[in-house]
Backbone:
């Protein structure tokens, strides 16, 4: 079973009569050196990007409209037989029927990777990381302007994510039993364990499926030894050198920004100024030229040592205590860090799979194709109304199919000079060379070794067998529960607040 089939199976049980159209883009593995950028030596890591787009069609005569989307990253660390799934963004437009498919979509995606029988990577340990921060929109630009979209508040979003992970853990535990133990952690910066537990229970008291047989632990997972960490040497009789060996670095993640601040700030007042150089004299010119290369090596070594010393000064407990005072974690809204970990016997790799972790699997696309689609979604389309959302959905779905068909649709629209009505926007963003990635103003170290495998070329067969799929559901309707927001509300009805009437003062 591939990821597309697993998602379609998860959507098949939704109530109502409608048809879902799923587009799944998974990039081929590529080398990545920034999952643990401060670890020495850095573990060899391979990265895959995941983008899921779901459109809904109430009846065959109605147009399609995007209703849900997921963006995630999958990291593979072969040296420790580990994989890390980071769910970066989940969004909905609020323009579909009730209930929203977002909840079923997220559960199907997580279950596909957590369950060792469907996991596409032959690893023994899997980690799921996510950071919950309430926003009006994530992947669908201007969708917050649509009146039917009701984004969850901060506490409701954290409770929603906790319910999804609990449901996935319960389902996988029921399938695999004791052979696949699962552990889960959560942390709401700025709140103690009792405060966080009571706050989440209060907003999800009437939600269904809140209980789970897998217990939650409040805190971080970087001090336990039951599930080996992807980079830490715990389990080989050694202790991690510093926090950079245990805390992963993700894009747009508060932990990564705090790690950069600790690593590159060597003084409490800020970054120190470079030392003054001695003037070069004629007698020492020849010697200095001969020692240029060795001097640069010593300089790089000194920078690495300074970074390690700075990270060693901060313990894991101190890191999370100081995280509670970060502005992005306490800026008037509650945020949450959620982690799930599971261990299972290492499965046998599929027959015919190359031993190299860089070998692309059937159905995978190039990272450039996925990046073009995501950039077009974020910069070339908007979803403030049903009319604009229908147009954006049609253009993007045709663009994905066109990319799998040799760009025929894009080339024909660009070369047709007789068209009467010009397109309001480009269907796909033009390819361009991205700027070099910087970590706190410093260029990141890239692995320059070549990839022995060519980028996969998507075809019509790839599109029909792995990327696109549809399922039509015809199940009993589910009654709407009060003011519950489609896609994950708390299930509470509207509350009427009564105000006391003031007694008029008599005249004296």
Residues:
């Amino acid at each position: 079973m591939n990821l597309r089939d697993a998602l379609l199976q998860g959507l098949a049980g939704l109530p109502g009569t409608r048809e879902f159209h799923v587009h799944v883009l998974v990039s081929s593995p590529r080398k990545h050196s920034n999952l643990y950028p401060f670890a020495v030596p850095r573990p060899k890591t391979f990265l895959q990007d995941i983008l899921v787009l779901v459109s809904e069609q109430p009846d065959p005569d109605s147009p399609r409209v995007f209703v849900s989307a997921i963006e995630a990253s999958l990291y593979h660390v072969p040296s420790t037989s580990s994989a890390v799934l980071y769910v970066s963004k989940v969004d909905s437009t609020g323009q579909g029927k009730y209930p929203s498919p977002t909840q079923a979509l997220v559960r199907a995606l997580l279950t596909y990777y957590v369950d060792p029988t469907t996991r596409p990577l032959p690893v023994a340990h899997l980690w799921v990381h996510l950071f919950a921060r309430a926003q009006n929109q994530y992947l669908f630009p201007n969708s917050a302007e649509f009146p039917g979209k009701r984004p969850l508040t901060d506490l409701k979003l954290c409770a929603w994510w906790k319910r999804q992970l609990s449901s996935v853990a319960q389902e996988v535990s029921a399938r695999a039993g004791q052979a696949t133990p699962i552990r889960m952690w959560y942390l709401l910066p700025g709140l103690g364990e009792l405060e966080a537990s009571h706050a989440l229970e209060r907003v999800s008291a009437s939600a269904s499926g809140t209980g789970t047989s897998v217990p939650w632990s409040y805190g971080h997972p970087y001090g336990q030894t039951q599930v080996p960490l992807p980079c830490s040497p715990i389990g080989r009789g050694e202790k991690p050198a510093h926090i950079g060996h245990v805390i992963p670095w993700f894009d747009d993640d508060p932990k990564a920004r705090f790690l950069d601040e600790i690593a590159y700030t060597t003084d409490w007042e800020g970054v120190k100024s470079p030392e003054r150089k001695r003037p070069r004299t004629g007698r020492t010119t020849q010697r200095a030229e001969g020692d240029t290369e060795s001097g640069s090596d010593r300089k790089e070594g000194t920078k690495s040592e300074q970074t390690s010393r700075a990270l060693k000064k901060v313990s894991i407990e101190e890191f999370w205590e100081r995280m509670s005072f970060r502005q992005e974690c306490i800026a008037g809204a509650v945020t949450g860090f959620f982690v799930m970990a599971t261990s299972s016997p290492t499965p046998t790799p599929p027959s015919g799979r190359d031993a190299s972790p860089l070998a692309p699997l059937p159905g995978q696309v190039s990272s450039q194709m996925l990046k073009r689609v995501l950039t077009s979604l974020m910069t070339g389309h908007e979803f403030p109304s049903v009319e604009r959302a229908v147009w954006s959905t049609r253009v993007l779905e045709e663009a994905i199919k066109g990319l799998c068909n040799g760009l025929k649709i894009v080339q024909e629209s660009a070369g047709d000079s007789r068209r009467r009505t010009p397109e309001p926007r480009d269907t796909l963003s033009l390819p361009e060379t991205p700027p070099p990635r910087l970590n706190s103003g410093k260029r990141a170290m890239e692995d320059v070794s070549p990839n022995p495998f060519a980028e996969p070329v998507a075809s019509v067969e790839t599109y029909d067998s792995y990327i696109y799929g549809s399922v039509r559901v015809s199940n009993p309707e589910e009654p709407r529960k009060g003011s519950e927001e489609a896609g994950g509300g708390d299930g509470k009805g509207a509350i009427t607040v009564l105000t006391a009437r003031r007694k008029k003062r008599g005249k004296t």
Notes: Confidence is low (pLDDT under 50) at residues 268-274, 408-427, 482-497.
